[in-house]
Amino acid sequence: MKKILIILMVCGLNPVGASPATIVIYGDSISAAYGIGLDLGWVTYLQKKLQSEGYSYEVSNESISGETSAGGVARIDEVLAATKPKVLILELGANDGLRGLSPLIMKQNLSIIINRAQRSGAKVLLISMRIPPNYGPRYTELFYQTYPTLAKMLKIPWVPFILNDIALNKKLMQGDGLHPSAEAQPLIADKIWFYLQPLLVTAQ
Question: For residue 1, is it within any domain?
């Protein structure tokens, strides 16, 4: 799958000669704006929010449609070396669930990504996902609980399911029932901003 990479410059007040800090978005198709284009994705709305709030950051979207947690582990060292982020927003796991992969393995993979990001000096915000109920109540709940459990264990902030109040609204979802529509993107950005903003106070 083709890697989607965009660099968004967020203009704000910055000391003369200082390079802007970097926020990396490390996710799958939800963050890669599948089906709608990057310019309409939630990452673009987040860029605008940062700008309007006066933060100076370079936002690097390192998301790939179809990415699994294992794929995230395989790429993380290269991404960290290239971007040197102050904050990493981690949005992976949905494709593990859709493939019926082990939540335990997913948890281990996400933990590796988080630990490596933290060792590089980045703060991490974990975004949780859910999978359709047809996978069975036991598996779907075990999958979802991976996120708050991991966040508590590693003492990082996490965002509850970002498609709450979106997934069941047909106007806010694409025809496949899995990916949010263009209309949903500002709502997603606002939800993530609520949890991201406290990290920015100390990250830059």
Answer: no
pLDDT tens figures, 147-168? 999 999 999 999 999 999 999 9
Residue linked to tokens 């939540």: 103
| Ranges assigned E (strand) in the chain | 6-10, 21-27, 57-61, 87-91, 123-127, 158-159
Phi, psi for 175 (deg, rounded to 5): -60, -25
Quote the tokens at residue 19.
Answer: 């390079």
Residue 4 reports pLDDT greater than 60: no
Mean pLDDT of the chain: 91
Count of residues making up the chain: 204
For the cut 60, the answer to whether the pLDDT of residue 56 exceeds it is yes
98, part of any domain: yes
- CATH label of the domain that carries residue 21: 3.40.50.1110
Q: What is the pTM of this model?
A: 0.90
Catalytic residues: 29, 176, 179
Alpha-carbon span 113 to 61, nearest angstrom: 16
Domain of 49 in residue numbering reads as: 6-203
Q: How far is CA 146 from CA 9, 22, 25, 142, in A?
A: 33, 27, 20, 6
Q: How far apart are CA 4 and CA 15, in angstroms?
A: 31
User: Is residue 28 a part of any domain in this protein?
Assistant: yes
* pLDDT band at residue 19 using 50, 70 and 90 as cut-offs: confident
Q: DSSP letter string over 34-85? A: TTT-GGGSHHHHHHHHHHHTT--EEEEE---TT--HHHHHHHHHHHHHHH--
